[in-house]
TrEMBL record:
<keyword id="KW-0436">Ligase</keyword>
<dbReference type="InterPro" id="IPR033656">
    <property type="entry name" value="HisRS_anticodon"/>
</dbReference>
<keyword id="KW-0067">ATP-binding</keyword>
<dbReference type="InterPro" id="IPR045864">
    <property type="entry name" value="aa-tRNA-synth_II/BPL/LPL"/>
</dbReference>
<keyword id="KW-0030">Aminoacyl-tRNA synthetase</keyword>
<dbReference type="InterPro" id="IPR004154">
    <property type="entry name" value="Anticodon-bd"/>
</dbReference>
<dbReference type="InterPro" id="IPR036621">
    <property type="entry name" value="Anticodon-bd_dom_sf"/>
</dbReference>
<dbReference type="Pfam" id="PF03129">
    <property type="entry name" value="HGTP_anticodon"/>
</dbReference>
<keyword id="KW-0547">Nucleotide-binding</keyword>
<dbReference type="InterPro" id="IPR004516">
    <property type="entry name" value="HisRS/HisZ"/>
</dbReference>
<feature type="binding site">
    <location>
        <position position="120"/>
    </location>
    <ligand>
        <name>L-histidine</name>
    </ligand>
</feature>
<dbReference type="InterPro" id="IPR006195">
    <property type="entry name" value="aa-tRNA-synth_II"/>
</dbReference>
<feature type="domain" description="Aminoacyl-transfer RNA synthetases class-II family profile">
    <location>
        <begin position="33"/>
        <end position="358"/>
    </location>
</feature>
<dbReference type="GO" id="GO:0005737">
    <property type="term" value="C:cytoplasm"/>
</dbReference>
<feature type="binding site">
    <location>
        <position position="134"/>
    </location>
    <ligand>
        <name>L-histidine</name>
    </ligand>
</feature>
<feature type="binding site">
    <location>
        <begin position="283"/>
        <end position="284"/>
    </location>
    <ligand>
        <name>L-histidine</name>
    </ligand>
</feature>
<dbReference type="GO" id="GO:0004821">
    <property type="term" value="F:histidine-tRNA ligase activity"/>
</dbReference>
Length: 473
């Protein structure tokens, strides 16, 4: 054991709070999931767009905290011109800036979809990260309720394509319903109204008791942290709760949306009116929608869990107009990729299988690296995932490396094989299975399980045959 003490300048390897690393298995599964979503969005006629990870803070909206350093809820910094810049907290505000900046060059309505990471400077917790991915679709430049109805249909068809048929509901309501209640209750203070919006948005998770606390003095969560409430009078709080728990009347836009989705063949089992949907962001101005998963689920300890909302959106007619002197109506829908991925994985609806590692060409003679690299290239040219070992270790360590990589086989050519014009192929999957059946070391050396030789010219064909046999096993 070494007595050497760590250097005082040594940096501790650690992740920032609320961040996570995403490894190969999940990345491959995400790629498949995002591809499915993209196909649906493309079928609906939306075009892809990408925007930067940060914007000038004033472009992100008037609802950001008005402080000397606007970092409550967002990550902000000053650039070389001493202008405040903030990491995007969603994909909608950057879209509004893009449309305003390119207004004359874009067709109206402008239809785009985008996927990317967004950043929230909020308290992290289990399943709640400060960096997470969203997948959005938006239609900008029309106030037609048909655009809102289409968003609901798009959300439903996306979840169907991902194999969630019968396990979700798209809920539709209108921000104007709550605004009407707040106006009637005399709740005029804009900051207080925003607290009410955020409280109501938690209704599915917290129920009447939790929302009632947030409409009043505040609520302490399971960790002991206290969230200040809206401090409404009892009569005001009761008016808001009545909207959430009763049969609230619909408005004209909602009636039109429901009529359109029914006409397109979407029944109440897929899309329906629900007055509890308000969405938490302040910029929504009309119809709002939410995609909720409805299947029962349990965690590893057998406790009941709910995935709840995996996406939502609504109409935001004032966001683009902030940049222009004319009204620019817009509507959109956003998927929470991480939560949806977790739900699909839980149901076994996504291919999260670990991809096979590459075929590894071992380096038996460092003077012949060019020959080994040529073998790897021959395999890659035949669409076989392959690599030459580029480390500096001997054969035993190279074999361990191939095992850790999940390699299906390794290619060996030492002096004896080269003299015969051959290569040896070692099937690591079969070798691993057979090793459990051979207990004697001498028997192992004699048997050399799952190892065979072929001519150099037959290398590619032999590996292709082996991989095909492994795929059938």
């Amino acid at each position: 054991m070494s007595d050497k003490k760590p250097s005082k300048t040594q940096v501790k390897a650690r992740l920032p709070k609320g961040m996570r690393d995403v490894e190969a298995q999940e990345l491959r599964a995400l790629k498949h999931m995002l591809g499915t979503i993209s196909e649906v969005y493309e079928r609906y006629g939306f075009e892809p767009l990408d925007t930067p990870a940060f914007e000038y803070t004033d472009a992100l909206g008037k609802f950001l905290p008005d402080t000397d350093r606007p970092n409550e809820g967002v990550f902000s910094f000053q650039d070389e011109d001493e202008q405040w810049v903030s990491m995007r907290y969603d994909l909608t505000a950057p879209l509004a800036r893009y449309v305003a900046q390119n207004f004359d060059a874009t067709p109206k309505p402008f239809r785009r979809y985008q996927t990317g990471y967004v950043y929230r400077n909020e308290k992290p917790g289990p399943g709640r990260f400060r960096q997470f991915m969203q997948f959005d679709a938006d239609t900008v430049g029309t106030a037609n309720p048909a655009a809102d109805a289409e968003m609901c249909m798009l959300a439903a068809d996306t979840l169907e394509a991902l194999g969630l048929g019968g396990s979700y509901i798209i809920k539709v309501s209108s921000r104007t319903l709550l605004d009407t209640v707040l106006d009637a209750a005399g709740i005029d203070d804009q900051k207080k109204r925003l607290v009410v919006l955020r409280a109501v948005d938690k209704f599915d998770r917290l129920g009447v008791p939790g929302v009632s606390d947030l409409l009043g003095k505040g609520r302490k969560d399971e960790s002991g942290d206290f969230t200040p409430g809206a401090d409404l009078a009892p009569a005001q709080a009761n008016a808001v709760l009545a909207l959430l728990t009763g049969e609230a009347p619909s408005d004209a836009a909602i009636a039109t949306i429901i009529e359109l989705v029914r006409g397109a063949g979407f029944g109440e089992d897929r899309i329906r009116f629900d007055p509890t949907v308000v969405r938490g962001l302040e910029y929504y101005t009309g119809p709002v929608f939410e995609a909720e998963l409805t299947f029962p689920a349990t965690d590893e300890s057998g406790q009941a869990v709910r995935f709840g909302s995996v996406g939502g959106g609504g109409r935001y007619d004032g966001l683009v107009s902030r940049f222009r002197s004319q009204p620019v109506p817009a509507t959109g829908f956003s998927i929470g990729v991480s939560r949806l991925y977790a739900a699909l994985s839980h149901l076994g609806k996504i291919d999260a299988a670990k991809a096979a590692g590459p075929v590894v060409v071992l380096v038996m003679d460092k003077a012949r690296v060019g020959d080994y690299q040529r073998m790897a290239k021959q395999l890659r040219d035949a669409d076989i995932r392959a690599e030459m070992y580029v480390g500096e270790a001997g054969m035993k360590a190279q074999m361990k490396y191939a095992d850790k990589r999940g390699s299906p086989c390794v290619i060996i050519q030492g002096e004896d094989e080269r003299a015969k014009g051959e290569v040896t192929i070692k099937d690591l999957l079969e070798g691993s299975r057979l090793s459990g059946e051979i207990s004697d070391h001498a028997e192992w050396k004699e048997a050399r399980p799952a190892q065979f030789s072929v001519s150099e010219d037959d290398l590619v064909a032999a590996v292709q045959k082996l991989l095909a046999e492994q795929a059938k096993a």
